[in-house]
Write a structure and sequence with these properties.
Layout lengths: L8 H22 L4 E3 L4 H18 L4 E13 L1 E11 L7 E10 L4 E9 L1
Antiparallel strand pairs: 1-2, 2-3, 3-4, 4-5
């Protein structure tokens, strides 16, 4: 009785190796990247309000938080939140959009406004 020959085995192994390698590359590209977040999530809204309050204290302004327009998160030593938010200066002025980056380490109860700029 003749043993089956596995001529296609090297090709199969090579294909699996290529597949695994490509999965590792794709996963590696996501590490540290920005991921979309729900702008209506209560915690994201809380972070947006914090950003406006912190900016008001630092810049001596009086912006009023309106809503979160867009949000993204990035896992670092904690979580960075990149939030596009809408805020007004009061007095019936039209709302303007701003981008805020907030760094949070929830387990340490640490929150810091990293940047805040008009967009």
């Amino acid at each position: 009785m003749k043993k089956p020959q596995f001529q296609s085995l090297p090709l199969l192994l090579f294909s699996l190796l290529i597949l695994l390698f490509s999965l590792v590359i794709v996963d590696g590209a996501r590490l540290g990247g920005w991921t979309p977040a729900n702008p209506e999530d209560p915690h994201v809204v809380e972070i947006g309000k914090f950003a406006v309050d912190a900016h008001n204290k630092e810049a001596k302004t009086d912006l009023k938080f309106d809503r979160v327009v867009k949000a993204e998160t990035q896992v670092v030593s904690g979580v960075n939140y990149r939030i596009t938010l809408s805020a007004t200066t009061g007095g019936g002025a039209a709302a303007k959009n701003y981008e805020a980056v907030v760094w949070e380490k929830a387990w340490e109860k640490f929150v810091r406004l990293t940047s805040f700029r008009p967009v």
